[in-house]
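REQUEST ID: PR-0412
SUBMITTED BY: lab tech R.K.
PRIORITY: routine
TASK: structure prediction, single protein chain
INPUT:
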Amino acid sequence: MSVSPFLRREYLSGVLIMLIGVFGISEGYKYNMGTLAQMGPGFFPVLISGLMTFVGVLIVISARLAQDEADFHDSEGKSSQWLAWGCIIASPIIFVVFGRYGGLLPATFGSVFVASLGDKDMTLKQSVGLAGVITVIGLSIFAFFLKIPFPVIRGVWQ
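STATUS: complete
OUTPUT:
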């Protein structure tokens, strides 16, 4: 069985992301890590590099598990990708606008909801559910755990 060029590229990109992440971790540990309350200069690079390594591992695993080459070919052609591109580009714009005028809750929900609409396999109900779950996780982490100074709902709950 021959490996499709797409799988080979996906596998190699995952390995490359893992290598960059491991390099970042090794370089970041040369600096003071500090604590969660007072982060040192090495804390953020090690954190981001660890996330990169994890994402690289996930990419490699998905490339190894992918068996059906037909899943990677769009039968409708390239024109069907315009909706996905539009949703992905609109998502951060919505986050900025909703965050500025509405707060973290509507910004997160709106951004994730619009981004998920770009997936042709997601239903409207699934998009709402995903946006709700990500919003709860995001609020838990950024507003309540890390106490980022960003109003949850502007004007109501600061």
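NOTES: The first helix runs from residue 5 to 28.
REVIEWED BY: pending
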